[in-house]
Write a structure and sequence with these properties.
- The chain has a four-stranded mixed beta sheet.
- With 90 residues, the protein is α+β, with helices and mostly antiparallel strands.
- It has a single domain, classed as Ribosomal protein L30/S12 (60s Ribosomal Protein L30, Chain: A), CATH 3.30.1330.
- 36% of the residues lie in helices and 21% in strands.
Length: 90
């Protein structure tokens, strides 16, 4: 379950001023999220409908497994992917 504070944070990141203020951005899609995490980028939130989508590598990640309806509520895409992550800008 995605809490109200997480939903509010993710939806606020659709605006550039909040991305700049918080130093966070949203990455959606299996390949993009896995590539960013493999590169050592720090994550804040990871939401997925299937925990097997995330390659674990050598690190452990705190993952919130949610249903597709919740991903759709916070996604910026017309067709939401199986994974969404809030990432710290470097």
């Amino acid at each position: 379950m995605v809490g109200k504070s997480k939903k509010k944070l993710i939806s606020s990141l659709s605006l550039k001023k909040y991305r700049d203020k918080t130093g966070l951005f949203v990455a959606e899609g299996t390949k993009l999220v896995n590539d960013l995490l493999d590169a050592g980028i720090n994550e804040e939130i990871i939401l997925t409908t299937d925990s097997n989508v995330l390659k674990s590598g050598n690190r452990e990640y705190l993952v919130d497994v949610v249903d597709s309806r919740e991903i759709k509520q916070v996604s910026f895409l017309k067709t939401p992917q199986k994974i969404l992550a809030v990432i710290k800008k470097t």
